[in-house]
Structures are given as C-alpha cells and as structure tokens.
C-alpha cells in the first residue's frame, strides 16, 4: 500500500483531494487536519509518484509518496545550508571579503550538480583566506536563520523518539551552533582550518561530500539497529542526492531540479513541518497515524 500525503501551507482544497483520489482510483482518503490528507492507493510507487506530481502540477500543495508500512521513522538526517537554514554559509562568509556574488555563483553550480563538489569547495574556501573566525559568530547572530518550521520539525521528531542528525558539506563552525540552536542530536560537517583566529583558506581532508552524507546515513542506521527504510533524509542540492535516494523517505526542500526529480516528496510551498505529516505525525496535535 502506498500513502500519498498532500500538505498545503493553508487549507487544503477538498476539490484537489477528490480529483486526485479519482485519478488514482484510491481506496481511501484520510483527512489529517485542515492542511493535510493521506490518500491510500495500491500500485507501483514510481508510477503513482508520477501521476501525483503531474496531477498537482503547480497547485499550491506539496506531495509525498511512500510505502505506508514504513512511514514511521527512527532517524531524521538533514542537510544544513538552504535546508535547515535559509542561507549558504560559505556565500555569507565570502561577503566579508566582498566576494559573495563570485562565491555564490560557484555554490549555485555545485548545488545543481554541474561542478565536482570537493573541487568547488576547495576553490571557494581559498577565497576565504584571512577572514577572522570572529566574523562567523557575527554571521550566526545576524544573518543565519533557521528555515520556517525547522525548529518545530526537530522538536516534534525528537518527542516522537526520532534521532536527529545534521550532515553538511558546509562547515562545523556553523553546523555545531545551528545544531545546538535547533536541538539536533549530532552534527557532521567540514572543518575550516584557522591559525590564530584567522582562516587559512584550507579545509580539512577528507572532505565531506555526497558519498560521505550517504555513509553517515548508513552508519547512523547501523548504530540504531535499523535499516535505511526507517530513515527520512532532507536536502536541497546535488550533494544530497545519494542520501535522499538511500533513505526510505527522501524529501527535497525548495530543491535544485536534480534533487526534486529523485525525491519521494518535494516541498515547494510548505515549511519543514510537512515532513512530520509525511511521517504520520500531525504537528498541531501530535496525533499519530497508524501504519497500514
Ligand atoms: Mg544544502
């Protein structure tokens, strides 16, 4: 049995639900609350996903398509930049040297999958040479902001017994404080090298890229004694692809096209609490949907 979760940023259109139920020939539709409905349907997951995304087209609603049996999760693993927070930290750091447009252009291409991640990272970090580490604290206080729904998603997930992990191709200088602010259990990221409080323009090896994000997912699953089916992974860019494809539920948040095409759910309209609905948790009441 496949469950299709529709979530809207406001009231979900009953007409849209009814028309999708008809198109899918679905067994049943369970209204979760004003914003969300679960539609249950038998059939091939990929084919159903295709039908759902074609059907909702550009309606202001997000959809997540997954096996109903495994929707409850034990692990939530998420990217940081442009997923849990609204910024790309490396671009904000480059602004200290007035290099934001130049660095942001490289970041954009890397996140679209047009450049090799590690090479692009090394090239950009070189441009950060000479920036004081204290600039990072200033950015954390003034510029870096959690994405809408991020704090609630993490808090509710944890109350539901889900381990939360941040894994970032960005930097521990940001990942550690962001994880602490959001109450995330553990954080993994690259390390900027500094000497006497000044960035040297180097990043520690080995670089944490797409493969390492997937390995972190597998390692966390092993430690919990679960399989990747029991994990949800969230991201926005090309370096999240392997992790999002490997997790039982892969969510793409305001994503680059390469990730949107591969994810089970794409969040273009809703905030991150939509991931809770996907896992069968209604965030407003924290009532749980039983697995089918
Ligand atoms: Mg990202």
From TrEMBL:
<dbReference type="GO" id="GO:0000287">
    <property type="term" value="F:magnesium ion binding"/>
</dbReference>
<comment type="similarity">
    <text>Belongs to the HAD-like hydrolase superfamily. SerB family.</text>
</comment>
<dbReference type="InterPro" id="IPR036412">
    <property type="entry name" value="HAD-like_sf"/>
</dbReference>
<dbReference type="Pfam" id="PF12710">
    <property type="entry name" value="HAD"/>
</dbReference>
<keyword id="KW-0718">Serine biosynthesis</keyword>
<dbReference type="InterPro" id="IPR050582">
    <property type="entry name" value="HAD-like_SerB"/>
</dbReference>
<dbReference type="GO" id="GO:0006564">
    <property type="term" value="P:L-serine biosynthetic process"/>
</dbReference>
<dbReference type="GO" id="GO:0005737">
    <property type="term" value="C:cytoplasm"/>
</dbReference>
<dbReference type="InterPro" id="IPR023214">
    <property type="entry name" value="HAD_sf"/>
</dbReference>
<comment type="pathway">
    <text>Amino-acid biosynthesis; L-serine biosynthesis; L-serine from 3-phospho-D-glycerate: step 3/3.</text>
</comment>
<keyword id="KW-0460">Magnesium</keyword>
<keyword id="KW-0028">Amino-acid biosynthesis</keyword>
<protein>
    <recommendedName>
        <fullName>Phosphoserine phosphatase</fullName>
        <ecNumber>3.1.3.3</ecNumber>
    </recommendedName>
</protein>
<feature type="active site" description="Nucleophile">
    <location>
        <position position="79"/>
    </location>
</feature>
<dbReference type="GO" id="GO:0036424">
    <property type="term" value="F:L-phosphoserine phosphatase activity"/>
</dbReference>
<keyword id="KW-0378">Hydrolase</keyword>
<feature type="active site" description="Proton donor">
    <location>
        <position position="81"/>
    </location>
</feature>
<keyword id="KW-0479">Metal-binding</keyword>
<dbReference type="InterPro" id="IPR004469">
    <property type="entry name" value="PSP"/>
</dbReference>
């Amino acid at each position: 049995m496949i469950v299709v979760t529709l979530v809207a940023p406001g009231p979900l259109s009953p007409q849209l639900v009814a028309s999708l139920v008809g198109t899918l020939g679905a067994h049943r539709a369970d209204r979760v609350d004003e914003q969300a409905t679960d539609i249950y349907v038998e059939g091939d997951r990929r084919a159903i996903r295709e039908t759902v995304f074609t059907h909702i087209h550009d309606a202001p609603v997000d959809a997540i398509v997954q096996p109903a049996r495994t929707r409850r999760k034990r692990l939530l693993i998420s990217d940081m930049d442009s997923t849990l927070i609204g910024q790309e930290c490396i671009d904000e750091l480059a602004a200290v040297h007035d290099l934001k447009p130049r660095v942001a252009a490289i970041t954009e291409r890397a996140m679209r999958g047009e450049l090799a991640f590690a090479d692009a990272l090394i090239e950009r970090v070189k441009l950060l040479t000479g920036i004081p580490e204290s600039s990072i604290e200033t950015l954390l206080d003034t510029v870096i902001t959690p994405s809408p729904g991020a704090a609630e998603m993490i808090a509710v997930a944890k109350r539901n017994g889900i381990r939360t992990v941040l894994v970032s191709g960005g930097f521990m200088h940001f990942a550690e404080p962001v994880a602490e602010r959001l109450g995330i259990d553990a954080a993994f990221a690259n390390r900027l090298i500094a000497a006497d409080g000044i960035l040297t323009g180097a990043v520690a090896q080995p670089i944490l890229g797409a493969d390492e994000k997937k390995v972190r997912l597998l390692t966390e699953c092993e430690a919990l004694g679960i399989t990747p089916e029991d994990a949800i992974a969230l991201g926005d860019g090309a370096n999240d692809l392997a992790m999002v494809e490997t997790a039982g539920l892969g969510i793409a948040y305001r994503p680059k096209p390469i990730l949107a095409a591969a994810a089970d759910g794409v969040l273009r309209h809703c905030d991150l609490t939509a991931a809770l609905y996907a896992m069968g948790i209604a965030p407003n009441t924290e009532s749980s949907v039983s697995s089918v």
